[in-house]
From TrEMBL:
Keywords: Signal. This is Helicase SNF2. It comes from Variovorax boronicumulans. Residues 1-23 form the signal peptide. It comes from the Bacteria.
């Protein structure tokens, strides 16, 4: 039992030595070098503090920018009508088109008679 404890302690020590061999070295804090003087940096900080936040979103961003359109209202309406009547580019197979109007060669009275006969369970003439 003592031998197993000694072997496990040796194994742990070897793993610690192996782990220390791969550790990174610390080189300390590097000095910052800047071309701007302390007064220039202070002046830039004052300007930045009093300007608008470029990273603001939502309600903090302020009023929305007003866009001025160069297209007339009638032209936009005509484009909307064309887009509404064309195929949907974002839909998938079944709903990608407007369903075609199917014309039937049967008159309304014969279709109605067939529907009544089918509802009553009567055999239809072939």
């Amino acid at each position: 039992m003592n031998a197993s404890k000694i072997l496990s302690a040796v194994a742990v020590a070897l793993m610690a030595v192996a782990g220390a061999a791969h550790a990174e070295t610390y080189e300390g804090v590097h000095r910052l070098t800047s071309a701007a003087s302390r007064a220039d940096v202070a002046a830039q900080a004052v300007v930045a503090a009093h300007s608008a936040d470029p990273y603001a979103t939502g309600a903090e961003a302020g009023p929305a920018q007003v866009f001025v359109s160069t297209v007339s209202r009638d032209a936009v309406r005509a484009q909307a009508v064309v887009a509404a009547r064309s195929e949907n580019p974002y839909s998938e197979a079944v709903t990608s088109r407007v369903a075609p109007v199917l014309a039937s060669g049967l008159d309304r009275a014969s279709v109605r008679a067939e529907a009544r006969a089918a509802a009553r369970g009567e055999a239809l003439p072939l």
